[in-house]
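Students often ask why we bother predicting the structure of a whole assembly rather than each chain alone. The short answer is interfaces. A chain on its own may look different once its partners are present, and contacts between molecules only exist in the joint model. In this exercise we take two input lines together and write out one structure for the complete complex. Read the inputs first and try to guess which parts will touch.
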Amino acid sequence: MHELLIKNFGKYVSLTADEINKIPAFFVHKKVPRKKLLLEEGSVCQGDYFVIKGCLRQYETDAEGRENVVQFALEDWWISDLYSMFTNTPSVYNIDALEDAEVLFISHANQEALFREIPVMNIYWRIIMQHAFVALQRRVLFLQKPLEERYHDFLQRYAYFEQRIPQHQIASYLGITRESLSRIRGAVLKNK
Amino acid sequence: MHELLIKNFGKYVSLTADEINKIPAFFVHKKVPRKKLLLEEGSVCQGDYFVIKGCLRQYETDAEGRENVVQFALEDWWISDLYSMFTNTPSVYNIDALEDAEVLFISHANQEALFREIPVMNIYWRIIMQHAFVALQRRVLFLQKPLEERYHDFLQRYAYFEQRIPQHQIASYLGITRESLSRIRGAVLKNK
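Now the answer. The structure tokens for the assembled complex follow.
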């Protein structure tokens, strides 16, 4: 059950057999049926989720009741509201499952314990935090771009999302209407 | 010259005397006269700056030629375009000095060498990356708030900036005009 996680760690750090054996104790395996909320707006995010099956999304609900997607997470990805977790403040986000999913959950406290027990995990999480920072900054720059450019960027980076995630969810992530997305997709397909 | 930096490390990790002696070799001391650019839009950010004297700012120039401040850094703070540094892509930001300043600069390559030479630095930078992530997320949420709220948030968190940084720079950081800032400040002072 932890193979994908251990493999992910192995991309960035070297773990001994002894360390690998210790890891599962820090995580809780959770099944997440489609539409189930893992995090609800207004509550404090308790830890970090590593996706081993299915697709999760993180979104906020705006004043008009629209759901604005800020992140998708497929297998081998982390998802969490790190801001809420680190500052211990209520989240402005929801996290739910777009498909039946399975995650490995590590609480904030267990993460701190993991750093003490397996120090090389500090290297891993330093790198993961660098990635999270870059992804957030990319998102800020991304939303300042014209619609067409956003879609091209998205396709370049996340073409495989197109197969897994409904069009209206992608439109929400891109910050555009479903109609605009259809129009832009049409133009892209025509130019191929 | 490195006392402030060593003290800053000491807030988060314990260093041996031997490790402390090794640290200066990884940094370059730079004097930065007022208005001098440390990073220029279009070039790749080469590393991270720790301020030991003065005040730096990070800003972008928009299509209308306006300078939009995204961060100030006073003594004991880090400043850099981490996105540009980690992705090795041209920066959209400038970093310059608002006052005559002094910094300790660590190049990206030297930072990687520091992690190998003094592994506990991975803990320090994991925590610094968490702070950087939280600060960036806070900025995203901040710019979605009404003007008055932004100024109140700013005062709560950064009241000491008011003494050091010109009003038009603060207005730029808050994403409001100088006139709006004057109006809001007037209302705040009247209510005191």
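Check your guess against this: Chain B touches chain A through 21 residues (CB under 8 Å).
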